[in-house]
Write a structure and sequence with these properties.
three-stranded mixed sheet; mainly alpha
Length: 528
Amino acid sequence: MSDRTPVDQLTESFVDIRWHLDPVEGSDAGRVQDDGRLGSFSDESVRQHLAALRSLMAAVEELEVSCLDDEIDRTALLYAIRVAEHRFRREQPHHHNPGLWAGHALEALYQLLTVRDREPAALARAAAERLQAIPRFLEEARATLTDCPRVLIEGAVAALGAGGGLVTEVETAFSGATGVAGGASAARDALGSFATHLAGMLHGPTPEEPWGIGREALEFRLAHEHAMAASTEELLRYAGALVAETERELTALARTLGSAPWQDVMLRLREDRVEPDLLVGTYRDALARARGHVEEHQLATVPGEVLEVRATPPYAVPWIPVAAYQPPGPLAGDRSGVFLVTRPDGAGLGDHSQAGVAATAVHEGFPGHHLHFLTTYRLPRNTRRLLHTSLTVEGWALYCEGLMDETGFYANPDERFFRLVALLWRALRIPVDIGVHTGALSYGAAVELLTTRLQLSRTRAEAEVRRAFDAPGGQLAYAVGRREMLALRSAYLERAGPAGTVRAFHDALLAYGALAPSLIRWGLDLDG
């Protein structure tokens, strides 16, 4: 664009650096030139990546800006660069997390099956190139990984279990294209061999707990990724208060549903599951109902792009235990979103209670992720289209679950009850996230917390805890982000007075995309 600001240009430089290291992320964003590439997380590649980030960081720090919007965007960009640099310098997932490598290879193949706005011939070439690159990429992984915690090895092995099926799907989708059959055979062997190698690591010495990144590194993420001043101790106090408040509400609502302890009501409602063959249709209906409610109550501007509901493919089940929203990339030509729902596996994954469908549709669709991402992608500023924090992305979606309760969306007490169960689940993620990374909770204790307080199956609880190890600070973002959304709304409406509306607040908030709430507060001048 001819009117790009200097911050916009530096943001482009940042994503160029990031996508050079991780072209799968670039491809996911819609950058076609990355479609045939795999990244490299070798020590030399990471060294070059860190050098580029430090150079760009200096340029952003020295940049002089002339208006508040530019200063907010410059701050968001600077924080994003600091987090990216800190991740590979201090946390070093390329050394300690085999899931980084396994996930990169699997996502690279999965993209080939889901991307919509590419020429078929170009996509077939990309498929052959990626398949052929996998053996070398995984050899590089073996040479780089060291001192891997058991929990991360086990997570990677579980994900790689779907690798062979994923390769077969790619091979079938692009059958006949030059290089695909040979590449598929080599990739299948390499993925299997890598899984065997990782499984063998479990029989050897592995680091003792704690396995997290440590309190200092986690608080760095809070301060820069989420732009928060809160300490881990303050967040744990908040989590305790939220858990107690939510359990009181569940107890009161349970009395209207049979006077049983709320845990018994929860277990009874969980048994009323959606029939597997009706899953897609049930969620499609719930999303349509949610969209209509948002429009009728004028809660936000609803984007016109399609949100398609599909059953989760078998090869994607290990990383989508219940449901997930897959947004289009910010640079993609096709702006359709995809909502995936996982069929039950009999071991706790893919269980969908009738009462929980509505809140999930709100969170993933309207006015949650789909509305949020599509609104963000229309923003003129690169920084707000391309950068985000999970504190705002997930905080907004969880806030929306409560917003829809406030405005009468949920059809019956069962749906309202499960909305509260979902809130309790996210509240308990705070002590899990903080605990495993500061050493206050062992892996086993974190799993026990979830199986005891939420009556989750062990399989589901273990998947939850692995997510916390994989993405430090990501699990606490849901409930803490909701708190920040509510605080912003309260401050906005108090300042606006009688003329203020929730719709006006949402429009003002979403104009900042998914920047950190503290930066949105700064932009809306709500600190006074």
